[in-house]
């Protein structure tokens, strides 16, 4: 696909990305990503912070991944520190797609516990992609402080992030199952079940965790099936 001549100008691209019609914005983001040009990076990042349409935001992220990380990553790191929640969330999402581990230092405990659920979820996803191998156990501990947080989607996101770290999470999860907060205990048990059996649905894992919380583990020390 060749980018239309009128879209090769950054000002025209900006106008298209700000069009009232989401279909026009989507095509503009596709065009910019299809023919990468570092002149568009600022415009793409600025638009990510305010774009209301999910599909357009995904296309903006894709377009950014088509540009050199040496150009995009520093600007995305600036966005992670923004006061705007969508700017933080979308920048983290894009960093997770780029996967440049030089971005790892921006993933702080404060970010992992951000008060906005969407920002926190994006931080969890980015963290498990960017974390160095030797820091996985420490990340598991930081993520575990968020067990029991929010509604189903938030809890599922956290479970998926923890599971992505692998068996390094087991000591932390088992510690969480002995805590005082029943929601934390249930979430930890459900996450451990999902780690052992990835085909288990989240709702089933929660129900199984409730059963174990009441009846205890099976006689072998494992949860009964």
Helix-residue proportion: 55-70%
Low-pLDDT parts are: 1-7, 219-225
Which whole number gives the mean pLDDT?
89
Q: Would you tell me the structural class of the helices and strands?
A: mainly alpha
| Rough outline | elongated
What string gives the helices and strands in order?
HHHHHHHHHHHHH
Main β-sheet description: none
**Contiguous helical run count:** 13
Strand content: under 5%
Rounded to an integer, what's the Rg over CA atoms?
21 Å
| Distance separating the two termini | 53 Å
The count of strands amounts to 0
List keywords for this structure.
single chain, mainly alpha, disordered N terminus, 64% helix, disordered C terminus
Describe this structure in words.
The protein is mostly helical. Helices cover 64% and strands 0% of the residues. It contains 13 helices and no strands. The protein has helices at 10-17, 22-34, 41-48, 54-65, 69-80, 85-98, 109-112, 117-130, 136-144, 152-164, 170-176, 182-196, 202-215. The longest helix has 15 residues, at 182-196. The chain is elongated. The termini are far apart. The model is unreliable at 1-7 and 219-225 (pLDDT under 50).
Break the fold down into its secondary structure elements and pairings:
Elements: H1 10-17, H2 22-34, H3 41-48, H4 54-65, H5 69-80, H6 85-98, H7 109-112, H8 117-130, H9 136-144, H10 152-164, H11 170-176, H12 182-196, H13 202-215
